[in-house]
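Dear Dr. L.,

I hope this message finds you well. Following up on our conversation about the binding site, I have prepared a predicted three-dimensional model of the protein together with zinc ion. For your records, I am including the exact sequence and ligand specification that went into the calculation, followed by the C-alpha cells. Please feel free to forward this to your student if that is useful.
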Amino acid sequence: MGRPLLGHVRANEVAKQGRRSVESYQKLREVACEANLLVPKYGLAILTWGNVSAFDPERRVFAIKPSGVPYEHLTPDEMVVVDLSGTVVWGHNRPSSDTPTHRVLYAAFPQLGGITHTHSSSAVAWAQALQDVPVLGTTHADHCPGPVHCTPFLRQEAVQRAYEEETGILVLETLKQKGTSPLETNMILVGGHGPFTWGKTATESVQNALILEEICSLALKTIQIQPFPRKLPDYILEKHWERKHGPHAYYGQAENRH
Ligand SMILES: [Zn+2]
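The resulting structure of the complex is given below.
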C-alpha cells in the first residue's frame, strides 16, 4: 500500500525517522530542483555553492537544496521540505546550511515565492567591499529602483547565537533601515558574504541572481574606467523603472512584462 509517490521503502523511512509527512510535496520539490539547476547553468556558482528554495504559502513550507550535494546529482527526490519552524517535513537529506536564512525571510514575507543565494564573483566582490552598488546605468535601473544595498558585517554575538538565522534578520533590518522591503526590491548583498535574491517564483529568484551579478559586473567595470562615475540622473532612472514596473508599464508583451 502506501502512497505511490513515497513508495514502500520511503514509507518505512517515514515511520522510522518520524519526521516526514505522508504529504510528498512533489510539485514543490520539482520546482525547487528545476530552479536549483539554473544556478550552474547561469554560471552563478561552482561546486556545491549556492542554494535555491521554493515556497508554498498555503502549506507554509519550502523545498530547498540539500546541503553539500553536487548540482549534477540533484533530483526532486533529493530536495528537502522544511516548515517555518525549521522542521524537516519531507526528505532524507540534511537541508542547505543556509535554510534558516530562507525561513526567516519567508516567515516575514510569505508573499515571496522563491529565494536564491549564490557566490557569484562580482556580487561577492561588492559584498566584500561592503559597498552599496550605485545606479550607474539603465541596466541597473530596469531591475532595481535604487542602489543595491549591502548589509554591514554581522555582529560577533549574532554569529555565535544563530549565524544563518541572524543573516536573515540582518537582511530584513537593513532593508527596513534603508526605507524599503523585500516587496519593493528583490536583491541584497550580505556584507563580507554574498548575494541573496528573491522573486514571485523560485525560477524568478534565480533570474534575479543572474541580473544582480550582471549589475555588479557592469558597475565594477565602470569604476575601473572612471573611479568616480556620475550616478544615473533620477529622470532616466525613473523612466526606465516606470516603463517596466510602473502602473503604465509598456515594456515587453502584456503577459510577460519584465
Ligand atoms: Zn553563502
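In brief: Confidence is low (pLDDT under 50) at residues 1-12, 14-19.

With kind regards,
A. P.
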